[in-house]
Amino acid sequence: MEIMKAVLGLEDGEFVVGDGFGVEGECSGELVFNTQMTGYMESLTDPSYAGQILMFTFPLIGNYGVDEQNFQNPRVSALACITKEICDRPSALPSIRTYFEEHSLFGMQGVDTRALTIKTRLHGTMKAALVVGSNDGQVAVALARNAPDISDTTPIPAVSCKAPHHIPGKGKRIAVIDLGIKKNMIISLAARNADLHIFPHNITSNEILACKPDALFISNGPGDPKRATDAIRCVKALLGELPIFGICMGNQISALALGGDTYKLKFGHRGANQPVRDMNGRIYITTQNHGFAVNGDTLPEGCRVSYTNVNDGTVEGFLNDDLNLTCVQFHPEAHGGPRDTELPFFDSLFRRIS
Hints:
- This protein is an alpha/beta fold and 354 residues long.
- It folds into two domains: 4-147, Carbamoyl-phosphate synthase small subunit, N-terminal domain (Glucose Oxidase, domain 1), CATH 3.50.30; 156-352, Rossmann fold (3-Layer(aba) Sandwich), CATH 3.40.50.
- It has helices spanning 40-44, 96-102, 113-123, 137-146, 156-159, 183-190, 205-210, 229-238, 249-257, 342-352; strands spanning 4-10, 15-22, 25-34, 52-56, 60-61, 80-82, 85-86, 106-109, 126-132, 165-167, 173-177, 195-199, 215-218, 244-247, 261-278, 283-295, 304-309, 315-320, 325-328.
- Strands 10-12-11-13-14-19-18-17-15-16 form a ten-stranded mixed sheet, sandwiched between helices. Strands 1-2-8-6-4-3-9 form a seven-stranded mixed β-barrel.
- Helix 8 (229-238) packs across helix 9 (249-257).
- It is globular, with a radius of gyration of 20 Å.
- The protein starts with a strand and ends with a helix.
- The mean pLDDT is 96.
C-alpha cells in the first residue's frame, strides 16, 4: 500500500505531518475535536460539522467499518477527518480508507491528536488547513490563515433541504425548519407518529402556517446561528402562534428570535459524554456538537434556563411556558445515555401539543 503524505497547518504557524488517506487535495476551515469513542461515521455525516475539519481524540477509528445505515446524512459533511490511526482490517466492510477513496474525501492519520486537542483547549479553536499529497507545512499554514472565520460563512444553505417535503404520519402535524437536520431527529419524531412537513432554511412564517401545523420544530445546523437570519425572522413571527421546540442550533435560533444573544465558545462541546444538570437537580450524560451558546443573562422575562452544563455552567436549554417554547442545546435524539434524554424531551414535546 502506497502511503500518501499529508500535512495539517494551523493559523498560528504550527503544522504537523502525517499519512494521508482518501484522495489528494486540500481544504480549510475550523479544526474541532470530538471526544466520543464510537459513532465516528455518525459524526462525520452530521451536517453541523459543515465547514469544519473534524479531529477525533480517541486514538483509533474505523474498527467496525462504515455502516451507512447509521449515517445522519447521506454524505460526509465534515471537510476532513484527522485521527491518530484508522483501522485497515475492520470487523465489517468497507473500511474507512476504502470509503474515503471511493467518495473523494480527505483524511490524515499518524498524528498526536490528543496534543492538538490540548492545544485547542488552551488557545481556543483555530482555523486550519489539510493538504493531502504534500508535506509542505508552509503552504498549509498559509491556507489556514486565509480561511474565512466561521462567523463570516453561511454553511446552512448547503446542508438544508432544497424544497419542502412531507413524511406522512397519523399523529400531530409538525412543521420542521431544516437547518441541516440529523436523521435521528426525524426518526424520533416519526416514532411518535408525527406527520412531518419539512421546510428549507429560508421558509417564511406564512408558508409554515399554511400547512396548519400543531407545532414547529427547529433542527440543528452548522456555523454561527446569527447568520441564520431567515430562520430567526420566521421563528420570531411564530412565537406565541405555535408551540415551538428546538435542538442545538434550534435552541440558539429561538433565543435570538426572542431578542437574546449568543456567543462563540472557546473550543465548543463535541462528544457523547457531556454532563448537564436539569433544573430539578438531575444529571444527564448527553451527546453534543456545538461551538456557540446562548447567553442566559440576555433571555427576556418569562424564560427559564432548564439545563446547564456541569463542566462550565453554560446554558444547555431553556423554556418559556407563556409562549409554549422548549429548547435544548444537547442532542436527545442521539441516545447518549443511551436514551435518557430522548424520552423526556420528545415525550414532553408531544404532551405540550396534545
